[in-house]
Amino acid sequence: MTDDATNDATNEPTEPPFDPLERVIHPRRVARIDHVLAQRLASVTVVFEDIYDPHNVGAGMRTADGYGLSDVHVVTAKHGFKGPGSVAKSAEQWLTVHRHGSPEQAIAALRAQGFSIWVSDLDAEHALAELPVQGKIALVIGNEAEGISEAMRQAADVRYVLPMHGMVQSFNLSVALAISLERVAVQRRNQLAARGRGGDLPAERAAALRPRWLEYGVRQAKKVRAAYAEGDPEADAAIRAAQREEAALLAAATARVRVHGRTQEES
What we know:
CATH architecture of the largest domain: 3-Layer(aba) Sandwich
Number of strands: 6
CATH class of the largest domain: Alpha Beta
Helix content: 40-55%
CATH topology of the largest domain: Alpha/beta knot
Largest sheet: 6 strands, parallel
Radius of gyration: 21 Å
Strand order of the largest sheet: 3-2-1-5-4-6
Structural class: alpha/beta
Order of helices and strands: HEHEEHEEHEHHHH
CATH superfamily of the largest domain: SPOUT methyltransferase, trefoil knot domain
Distance between the termini: 56 Å
Number of domains: 2
Strand content: 5-15%
Shape: elongated
């Protein structure tokens, strides 16, 4: 069977156009941005349904980014969206976050994009490891008190159980997500690797994300781009100013890491 989610010709990598910010950012960072974009998964996504603890939202987003997902969905029917909190380590800036006011809106949006809906369920007949990873998959993570909604449960195409062997019959939300992604995202990557590909984010989406990713940490990004676009003779001066600022920020960050490292060793 051909998996349409991993067989899209528009995913073929292309050489990105030059961005003036590349004159400011260290080449290693530019290369890392391009590498991560090339490895992004668009065929696997996560739905956070009415999670009210920002810590859990942040941990979940950090996990999603760590597994290379491109998008996450947040349902805010009851508790709203309080932001991911500091535990996210800014992971949310590398993700595209889609917000939905109800489970039904999220379900409709996911269906329109061709996703099947997967939910964990203690009463499910199959463990996650027994299920084939096919097509586009949305893993739903319910909230801390009630789990997933009845609407999402009824809409589920796949119900799976995460085996547990202790007395407590639940994992922390981010842990459950990590266990699920270890199966689904890794299996998807294996399928892509067999086709000689690292990710399946469409090329046009990667091209649209790249300028935004390059901007992070460059406070004078708009000034640099504007100077180049207008043929401003002061463009080189703007570049040099941004480079000095980037170098100062990097030095400060390195100093903080060194101080933190010494503090840990001494303790």
